[in-house]
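Re: that chain you flagged

S.,

Sorry for the slow reply, it's been a week of failed gels. I finally had a moment to sit down with the sequence you sent. For the record, here it is as I used it:
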Amino acid sequence: MKMRSMVIVLLFCSTVLFAQDGTEKKNVAITIYNQNLGVVNETRSIFIPKNLSDVNISDIPTSINPTSVHFKFDGEVYEQNYRYDLVSMAKLLQKYIDKQITIIKGDVKESGTLLSIQDRSLIIKTGNGLKVFPDFNQYQITVDELPSGLLTKPTLVWKVFSKNEGKQDIDISYSVRDIKWDAKYVAVLNDEETQMDFNSWVSIDNNSGGNYENAKLKLIAGDVNITRGYGDFQVFTESNAARTQESPLMAKRPKFEEEKFFEYHIYELDQPTTILNNEIKQVSLFNIQKVKVQKKYSCFQDYSQNSDEKKNVNVLIYFKNEKQNGLGIPLPAGMISVFKTRNNTAELIGEDNIQHTPKDEEIELNLGKAFDITYTEKLTSSNKSGEKSYVDQYILEFFNHTDKEIEIEVNRWAPGDWVISDSNYNFEKKDAHNVRFKIKVPTNGTNKLNYTIRYSI
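Prediction finished late last night. Pasting the structure tokens below so you have them in one place:
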């Protein structure tokens, strides 16, 4: 009998799974997308025994996509598991049915065998009989130890086979949710409103449930198509020989290097950085002085409007994203806050959002409504000239209460096939259905735009 027991113990020892959760991170890199997604690549140093064993890693972000995980080492991977059966009061007590627990409330202490847990009520068997406790949240409960199978944090587990025993560098990659970035821009106009100092900050919002310490940071700008849910999002890491070694942090200002990547743009920070969970981090993207701008006034005509009500025109800032203007760089989507200084104090004069903007494109920022410049629009005549044809006449009157002559761009949408005639100002046909007039209004004066439009729908 002893011989048989000895054999069983030996066989058990030869196939026991070696659980290993003490790992050392060596290289961490994270690529963050605008679409609330990040891709993490990391290298860890870990001891792996010979033959069959388990490799456990528990310090992972809670928003990890488990189907995206890729694990690479000098051996074979038999299984990959994502275990997230986290410990709770109810789960802990379920594991202690038919085992000894102690219930404490104030000076009263009851020990016994847990027989049942239903909702929040407990039944235990004590030396004095059965006792029922209707709500376990009202008591302090003590148990001997954490049962096997319950975890305090989500854990990745690989069943692996290695021919050799020893410490190895393993490569892991995976995607996470709830981390994103966007660009924040600040523009400060000069007194003449002809130039601006223009700087940008990258704003990273990390709610992924993970910390990325001393990490190599990359940002992808562009509308990357991402399928929602947990799909097969495989990411393959570099080989050990090709890994980028972490360089020491130098006492210089961090700088992003931009380059074209596929049909997007990638920004890579030249120094490692740390991004903590539940943190918003900002890093400077660029700082450019004396960008030429032009202030504009505009309005969009509501062709169905017929009212004496005065409306305020829009005030815009226009500039070209070109090299001759100190720019000529891809501008990621984000919000631009525009300030102007007064008595050495910067005052906000408006904000607007831009989309991803390539170099050499024009940008218009709608900052708000001009207080002292108003207009009215009237449909003075509307006649049906055919079954689906109409003739409309409009008068728009502009009022300039400032001490300088201004120019106002008047935009309108033209339905169907259209012709404009009898206009006292020339117009620009922007496309098949959009028209633009430019009207000058004198200092503290008024001016009118009159035209007739014939259209068929």
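What I noticed first: The chain has two helices and 31 strands.

Talk soon,
D.
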